[in-house]
């Protein structure tokens, strides 16, 4: 009994985030880990959903086809609304990011699964890719005029240098907030669920209370999973719009 | 039974934040880039052309159907206009034929009436003539009878005093006076 109880108490909410090599061996660049596996699953599920659904090419879409078309329409709408028709050039890029994050978040909700997007290494790369690409687009499109993005022309003279510093900082903070927002949301949600799960064993009969809370939290986590993917994509569109049209 | 081994291996306190275990970063980043590249090509080469194609085909099909519906509608309207025109023409023709027929019938009738009138007039004239003749004949007979009667009467009163001519003259004078 005692060992069982201590075993229950032993649940570490962070254990689920461990990145472990699947086939043993030292961790290196090409090591296949559980993170690799789940990235592959994410890509496979997206491919199945979009390719399986578009097989028929019927004028009346099948259910699966409707899902694919709805997601396409949703992201397309988002891109054109925020970044305009010019932004459609970068649509596949944003669609890739959105689908990858959405399905990572959602598949991470499966028991015993691994949430790829709960790792700062992943979200950091995603955010940096956006940051670098968008900055490059800005410079390619506007040349050195893109520096004007940081120079507040409408502000009173003496304030301009100060504001420029603030603008620069806020610009370079973008990838940090962009990545941490997503990663921390995923991390916190899953950790909280695990902590509540730990209470269940410790409370015995009263374990129904944390179980009820977990049911609610799980629903909430699904909401967060979708919203964070949406937020990431919409911010990408906003940054892209800044680079395309400046403001 | 398995727990001690499990617990010993993971070493509860040693887990900390797996997110900050930098030894896993190269592998995570490498495979993330592989996954994203794969996903990007799956989307741009396979999925998006199909989805966009399906949506465009549907859009085109709907547009085509609408165009065809509009064309049919136009044709129906044309047919209706042609029908109305034909109907109006037929009505006009019917009216014309009716008028013509009526006019012809009226002309025939007028002609027949005129002929009948002429015949009636001719017969009336003939009849009047014959009546006149008969009357003249009757008058002549009356004169003759009256003259003869008058002479006979006068003769019976005064024999030899009068002649036929006298009596006739006297009767004639009396009748015409």
Automatic annotation (TrEMBL), chain A:
<keyword id="KW-1003">Cell membrane</keyword>
<keyword id="KW-0472">Membrane</keyword>
<keyword id="KW-0813">Transport</keyword>
<comment type="function">
    <text>Key component of the proton channel; it plays a direct role in the translocation of protons across the membrane.</text>
</comment>
<keyword id="KW-0375">Hydrogen ion transport</keyword>
<feature type="transmembrane region" description="Helical">
    <location>
        <begin position="191"/>
        <end position="213"/>
    </location>
</feature>
<dbReference type="GO" id="GO:0045259">
    <property type="term" value="C:proton-transporting ATP synthase complex"/>
</dbReference>
<dbReference type="InterPro" id="IPR000568">
    <property type="entry name" value="ATP_synth_F0_asu"/>
</dbReference>
<dbReference type="InterPro" id="IPR045083">
    <property type="entry name" value="ATP_synth_F0_asu_bact/mt"/>
</dbReference>
<comment type="similarity">
    <text>Belongs to the ATPase A chain family.</text>
</comment>
<dbReference type="InterPro" id="IPR023011">
    <property type="entry name" value="ATP_synth_F0_asu_AS"/>
</dbReference>
<dbReference type="InterPro" id="IPR035908">
    <property type="entry name" value="F0_ATP_A_sf"/>
</dbReference>
<keyword id="KW-0138">CF(0)</keyword>
<feature type="transmembrane region" description="Helical">
    <location>
        <begin position="90"/>
        <end position="114"/>
    </location>
</feature>
<keyword id="KW-0812">Transmembrane</keyword>
<keyword id="KW-1133">Transmembrane helix</keyword>
<dbReference type="GO" id="GO:0005886">
    <property type="term" value="C:plasma membrane"/>
</dbReference>
<keyword id="KW-0066">ATP synthesis</keyword>
<feature type="transmembrane region" description="Helical">
    <location>
        <begin position="120"/>
        <end position="140"/>
    </location>
</feature>
<protein>
    <recommendedName>
        <fullName>ATP synthase subunit a</fullName>
    </recommendedName>
</protein>
<dbReference type="GO" id="GO:0046933">
    <property type="term" value="F:proton-transporting ATP synthase activity, rotational mechanism"/>
</dbReference>
<dbReference type="Pfam" id="PF00119">
    <property type="entry name" value="ATP-synt_A"/>
</dbReference>
UniProtKB/TrEMBL annotation, chain B:
<keyword id="KW-1003">Cell membrane</keyword>
<dbReference type="Pfam" id="PF00430">
    <property type="entry name" value="ATP-synt_B"/>
</dbReference>
<comment type="function">
    <text>F(1)F(0) ATP synthase produces ATP from ADP in the presence of a proton or sodium gradient. F-type ATPases consist of two structural domains, F(1) containing the extramembraneous catalytic core and F(0) containing the membrane proton channel, linked together by a central stalk and a peripheral stalk. During catalysis, ATP synthesis in the catalytic domain of F(1) is coupled via a rotary mechanism of the central stalk subunits to proton translocation.</text>
</comment>
<keyword id="KW-0066">ATP synthesis</keyword>
<keyword id="KW-0175">Coiled coil</keyword>
<dbReference type="InterPro" id="IPR050059">
    <property type="entry name" value="ATP_synthase_B_chain"/>
</dbReference>
<dbReference type="InterPro" id="IPR002146">
    <property type="entry name" value="ATP_synth_b/b'su_bac/chlpt"/>
</dbReference>
<keyword id="KW-0472">Membrane</keyword>
<dbReference type="GO" id="GO:0046933">
    <property type="term" value="F:proton-transporting ATP synthase activity, rotational mechanism"/>
</dbReference>
<keyword id="KW-0375">Hydrogen ion transport</keyword>
<keyword id="KW-1133">Transmembrane helix</keyword>
<comment type="function">
    <text>Component of the F(0) channel, it forms part of the peripheral stalk, linking F(1) to F(0). The b'-subunit is a diverged and duplicated form of b found in plants and photosynthetic bacteria.</text>
</comment>
<feature type="coiled-coil region">
    <location>
        <begin position="62"/>
        <end position="96"/>
    </location>
</feature>
<protein>
    <recommendedName>
        <fullName>ATP synthase subunit b</fullName>
    </recommendedName>
</protein>
<keyword id="KW-0406">Ion transport</keyword>
<dbReference type="GO" id="GO:0045259">
    <property type="term" value="C:proton-transporting ATP synthase complex"/>
</dbReference>
<dbReference type="GO" id="GO:0005886">
    <property type="term" value="C:plasma membrane"/>
</dbReference>
<keyword id="KW-0812">Transmembrane</keyword>
<dbReference type="GO" id="GO:0046961">
    <property type="term" value="F:proton-transporting ATPase activity, rotational mechanism"/>
</dbReference>
<comment type="similarity">
    <text>Belongs to the ATPase B chain family.</text>
</comment>
<feature type="transmembrane region" description="Helical">
    <location>
        <begin position="29"/>
        <end position="48"/>
    </location>
</feature>
<keyword id="KW-0813">Transport</keyword>
């Amino acid at each position: 009994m005692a060992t069982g109880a201590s075993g229950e108490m032993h649940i570490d909410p962070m254990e689920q985030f461990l990145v472990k090599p699947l086939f043993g061996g030292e961790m290196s660049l090409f090591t296949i880990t559980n993170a690799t596996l789940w990235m592959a699953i994410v890509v496979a599920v997206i491919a199945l959903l979009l390719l399986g659904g578009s097989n028929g090419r019927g004028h009346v879409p099948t259910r699966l086809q409707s899902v694919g078309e709805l997601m396409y329409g949703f992201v397309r709408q988002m891109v054109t609304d925020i970044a305009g028709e010019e932004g459609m050039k970068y649509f596949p890029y944003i669609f890739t990011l959105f689908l990858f994050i959405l399905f990572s978040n959602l598949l991470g909700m499966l028991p015993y699964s691994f949430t790829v997007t709960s790792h700062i290494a992943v979200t950091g790369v995603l955010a940096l890719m956006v940051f670098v690409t968008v900055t490059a687009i800005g410079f390619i499109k506007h040349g050195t005029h893109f520096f004007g993005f940081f120079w507040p022309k409408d502000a009173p003279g003496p304030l301009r240098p100060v504001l420029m510093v603030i603008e620069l900082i806020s610009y370079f903070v973008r990838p940090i907030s962009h990545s941490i927002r997503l990663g921390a949301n995923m991390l916190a949600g899953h950790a909280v669920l695990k902590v509540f799960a730990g209470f269940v064993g410790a409370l015995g009969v009263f374990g129904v209370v944390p179980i009820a809370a977990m049911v609610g939290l799980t629903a909430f986590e699904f909401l967060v999973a979708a919203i964070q993917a949406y937020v990431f994509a919409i911010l990408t569109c906003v940054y892209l719009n800044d680079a395309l049209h400046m403001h | 039974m398995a727990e001690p081994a499990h617990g010993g291996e993971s070493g509860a306190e040693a887990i900390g934040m797996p997110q900050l275990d930098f030894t896993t970063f190269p592998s995570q980043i490498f495979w993330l880039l592989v996954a994203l590249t794969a996903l990007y090509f799956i989307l741009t080469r396979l999925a998006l052309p199909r989805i966009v194609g399906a949506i465009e085909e549907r859009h085109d099909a709907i547009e085509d159907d609408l165009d065809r519906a509009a064309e049919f509608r136009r044709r129906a309207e044309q047919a209706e206009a042609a029908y109305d025109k034909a109907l109006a023409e037929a009505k006009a023709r019917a009216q014309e034929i009716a008028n013509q027929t009526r006019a012809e019938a009226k002309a025939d009738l007028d002609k027949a009436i005129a002929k009948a009138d002429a015949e009636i007039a001719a017969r009336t004239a003939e009849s009047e003539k014959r009546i006149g003749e008969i009357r003249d004949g009757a008058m002549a007979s009356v004169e003759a009878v009256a003259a003869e009667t008058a002479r006979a009467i006068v003769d019976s009163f005064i024999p030899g005093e009068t002649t036929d001519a006298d009596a006739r003259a006297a009767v004639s004078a009396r009748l015409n006076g």
